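protien #1 (seq + structre)
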Amino acid sequence: MTGRQSSTGGKRYTPDSSTNGTTYASNKRIRAKKRLDQLRKEMGEATEKQSAAGADMLQVLMFMREDADRRAETEDRR
């Protein structure tokens, strides 16, 4: 007769109103996860754009080098 309710499992009694909706903490976790997913997607897109730009720059540099070599050979023939 200690006056305790039947919560011998050690867990607190939660009212029915909190089980109907999600809690602030779970909403915060969900928002954080969505934002993290969005940031990862944006980071991936930025990386792809950077890779594409790097490949384009490499092609331009190779073209310029080949053009310079061609001009040097033409100059040597004269």
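ok now protien #2
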Amino acid sequence: MIYLRAGTFHNRKREFSPFTEGGQPVRCTLPAIAGGCPASAQTKHSMPKAKIVAPAEGARLQALDLRTLGRPTHLLPLFARTFQQELADFFERELNRRYHAGFRLSPLRQQLPEADERRWQWHALGDWQLGSHIDRALLLGILDYRFGANGAAPDGAPPAETETERRLSRMLAERLLPRFARAVHGLSGREPPLASPQALGLAPQAAWQLEIDVADADRPLGALRLRLDHAAFDALLQSLSGQRPRLPAAAATRFDEQLRLRLSARLLQQELPLGLILDLKPGSVLPVSLPPGAEVCVRDAALFRASVAERQGKLCLAGFADIE
């Protein structure tokens, strides 16, 4: 055997490492030197390696949105349930009951807005700017119920868009957007501002998108979409931040004032035989001698000695001293 004070021996690179990480020599046989001494089992380490992802696979991965870091985006499902109830109440009151329709809503979806070719209409609601889009098939289904049709799917291609459809879309948006504001402010327990949606000519940059599919009974019609600008999205996250579990507030009083113990004073303790106790009668007198002080106990554990004094007709303890 030949002992080399080297961790590894590479014949190709002709490099020596003087010691292993543990400082122990590596034992190599002569045939092993020609091909390189294998590293000791103790010196093998599995180092994490970065994985290079192909462009096709990387396109499927969700990019990290830096705007949402440190913000309560994990509480957005709570808002989704609240706004879903507002939308369900709107469709039930405004459409189903009035026109004897059967509109049903799917679960609300939330996502980052993407570029599309839809014609969004934007309204200003206070400091917020909100966009809305209603699929045409859904608008036509609502119009059928408003004008007394049976709401069945039309045969062939639909006709060109009419001004009636555009007015209905604006009317629905002006009624739905205040309900969105009520859902946002309701998360923080505040009343929504008394403001009416005002139409905007230019579309601002959208920060968040809400989308919900609507069906007439079992027949899918289309989707209702809302977009929020940065001010509206910030207000939504601010309202959600109030739903975080908070630590209990610090007590205003000091700890020594909060800590309350029940003290019991033991002035006299005497053991009597059972026969003497049975012979006791009302008016019997026991000869005892009072100690100079009483034992002050906390949960039957004597901690202090104190003197008993009378003050204003009450017995008080004074002159506390520790029991050694």
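The mean pLDDT is 80.
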